[in-house]
Structure formats: C-alpha cells, structure tokens
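User: My collaborator sent over this chain with a note saying "see what the structure looks like." That's all I know about it. Can you take a look?
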Amino acid sequence: MAKAVRFYEAGGPEVLRYEDVEVGDPGPGQARIRHVAVGLNYADTYFRNGTYPIPLPNGLGVEASGVVVAVGEGVDNVVPGDRVTYTGFINTLGAYSTERLIPAAPLIKLPESIAFETAAAMTMRGLTSAYLMRRIHAFQPGQSILLHAAAGGVGLIVSQWAKLLGLTVIGTVSSAAKAEIARAHGCDQVIDYSHEDVAARVRQLTDGRGVDVVFDSVGKNTFMASLDSLKRRGLMVCVGTASGPIPPFDPVLLAMKGSLFLTRPALADYIADPAEKAELVGELFEHVGNGRIRIEINQHYALQDAVQAHRDLEARKTTGSSIFVI
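Assistant: Without extra context I'll predict from the sequence alone. Here is the result:
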C-alpha cells in the first residue's frame, strides 16, 4: 500500500501524519506516479501552518520526481515508463507520498543526464531561479544584486546563475559556515546579518551607490534594509516571507527611498504559458546537465521523518536543497 504524509488541522510540524493511502487508477487527464524523491520547500510550511489556506484534511508537498506508472484517457504528454519531475501549487499538492495520482499537464520529462534526486531538489528552486534571472529584470554584465538567504536552495542556484550573467553578487547569511557555502557558489561578498548592518555594508561595498536588484525571501525582518540597499530606481523583488509577512506601508515610501520599483512574483505566473515554461525548463536543464550550475542536496530525509524535516527547515538548520528519499 502507498504511504503519504497528510494533516487534518493547520499548525506546527506536529500536525503531520504518516499514513497508508489508497491510490486508484488515473482518470481522464491524470497520471499515476511512483515517486523516487520528493522536494522539501519552505512553501510547504505555509500550507501546513495555514498561511496558504487549503481544504483539510489534505496532503502536502508540491514537487517530486519519479516514474509514470499509468495514464488516463486523453493524456498524450507522457506514457508509462517515462522519467518525470514536476512542481506547481494547488494542482500538484500531495507530493509527500510514495505513489499518487496527479494531473498530467504539469509533468516534465526528465533527461537521463539529471538524476531523480537532483530533479526533486531543483525543479521548484531551479525554475524559480530561472524566472528571477531571465524574466524579472533585463540584467546586464556588471550589474549587482543583493541576495538574502544566499546559502539556501534558491540562493545557491541564483548565485551561480548570476555569475554566468556577469553579475556581482552580495549575499546575506546567518553564520560563518553558511558564508563559506555562499562564497563557494558564487557570492562575491557575504554579509552576516546576525551581527552586521546589511544596508550600511551594502553601501560600503558599492561605493555608496546601492545594488540594482534585491532578491528578498525573508520578508518582515529584512524589508527595510532591502529597500535601503537599493540604488535610485532599483528593483525590490519580494520572493518569500520566511520571517513573516511584510507590514502594510504607504507606497510613497518607495518614492522617498529613490523612486524604487517593487514586485511580488509567483512561480505559477511564470510557467503558466507552456512555451515559456518549456524555455525556462530547457535553459535550467542545460545548465545543470552541463555542470554549469551545481545542485547541492545537503539534507536527506525519510518520508516518515517529515515532522523533523519541517522543524529543521523552520529552525534555519538547512543549507542548499532538502529532499525526501522514497
């Protein structure tokens, strides 16, 4: 019998349950997938704690890789035996499982050059990095970025991609160990926000100018420092709220700090168009397959250890990518 992690009420990691589940035959437009590896993402905690409300009980996880077991009527993008990976949002919820039914449309065929574990660690993070690097801003060589959580899964990919584009990368981390990881993956300068003034240090490193773009996945605790780190007419990209939601503010604040631009993007809107998704997937797979971007899987968990995995994630004990191995 298949296994899955489910939860019946919103709350802390302790609400997660590892259970037997029945997996039926795929209906029209569906595929049955046998998972090999499952991605662990910070967004999973938002579903679990109620930040992203969903009907309960429900499964968890939106990213995994595996093999197609069967397909339903009308499915023509994959066939049984295909190696696949996927990521999404509500439409792929339920990835914390050994086997499942899923809409076939989000499935991405996986080239032999990319292992299942690598795919589970990078599909969401990699595609997020792809749209940040290739769609959010028309980067030019010599421009600079401030990257919060530089030693995290997205941070390590963005750092490497940014160097391919000729950018200067200033990363923020919370410890000396994470600083070394960030430097090893392309950060030119690293700021330890636990004891350094981020904005002041950025100004110092940029001769008072500020950076062209800030990628801020932390939210409440770093928002003002991020704005203060930008050059005049710079771009603030809010890509997460790990420390909590950003408090409401008067947009005139952006004018006062240099006519700044601000965006709060979501991956779903950058992969909604099949052609655009295919282009981003192709570029990501090429970089990873050719070794230009390394995917660091620094934490491996068993699916039944989902409670501990979430505790580690929220305690900032993880670096790089984390996966469940089936």
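A starting point for your reply to your collaborator: The domain at 137-264 is CATH 3.40.50.720 (Rossmann fold).
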